[in-house]
Amino acid sequence: MSRPERLTGPPVLVIGGDAAALSIARSLWARGVQVRALAAPDSALRWSRCVELIPIAGPDFFERVEEFLLGPESEPYHGSVLFTVNDSGLSLMIEQREALAKRFLLDRSNLDAQRCMLDKIASYEAARECGVPTPRYWLAGEDLTPIKDQLVFPLIVKPRHAHEASEMLNRKKYVRAENFEEAASAVKWMSDAGVDSFLVELIPGPDTTLSSYYTYLDEHGETHFDFTKRIVRRFPKNRGLATLHMSDHVDGLKELSLALWRHVGIQGLANAEYKLDVRDGKYKLIESNCRFTGGTPSAAACDRDLADLVYRQVVGLPPAHYEDFPDHVYFWKPRRDFSAFRELRALGEITLWGWLRSVMNRNQLPLWSWSDPMPSLVNSALFWRGVFGRALTRITR
Predict the structure, then answer these.
(1) What is the 3-state secondary structure (H, E, C) of 42-94?
(2) Among 201, 230, 255, where does a domain finish?
(3) With a threshold of 0.70, does the pTM exceed it?
């Protein structure tokens, strides 16, 4: 592998501290760009040599981040390129763009289009306007009785703005309802917490029918690269987060995504997730995002370095050239995927040998890097310390 091109420019400040932020830091550090991150004190970024952690403590994390960015504490970091890896950070950058632009360097954007993608109902309505298929969905009032006969089960209850309910849902994206009573209960629960929600049909089909498309759009709606991946397994099955996914050239996703994004005027990073509906053979839009996401490390492993691309755009450096990406590069979360294996084995859907064979591939791990191993090693050590600590507690009892 060739050595990354060294870049000359201002440092980067990232809002958030997950694997995507770590991927950004490693990419730009290898190119000589200083990276800092606003993240919780216990973030895995703390152990990375590629990033300086600016710890943000307290229960109201993003309120504290906003105070930091717009207050005197951020003065030493003025002139940095500002990135975010989550919807809450994106919402902050949208609503405070004018003030932030006076202090930091920001990527191009269309604020109305970004707001549309943050609002899941608005994004579905925009998709239907331009002919992009979506699941059936229903607005959720406090009383679901008027639409009771329209509903199909199982369905999912989702917050209209996912970032407003991430802590409430324990970082899950929705609540699954098997019947009307469960749907009404979930809607009431969110409503009581001040969260607007809506109902979406659960598209049948295995997890392998879920795929995503990624690109970057300029001010003319032209793309800078293409990248698609699809899911192999999730945990829990048919409802949880991906535990194993792989790069793959999935036909049809680019055309659907560009129809939506050009319709609303998206500029900058964009990705969309779809599920193939086995009933009619059509890909249905699940959600769309306009920021760095959890797929950032996956893209980087396939020569789609989103951090390098966006940084060059912001500071005015010549864009990098991208060749076609390889298929069958796997992205694996070992601990959660082992849980997925145990669930599927109990259902008679996989054997131990079948699972082992599925993970004996060219795997990219969420936190691991040979040049920056400490985040992964410390994270694993803390996990096993917790496992053995709980086991010892049960034994002593």
Answers:
(1) CCHHHHCCCCEEEECCCCCHHHHHHHHHHCHHHHHHCCCEEEECCHHHHHHHH
(2) 201
(3) yes
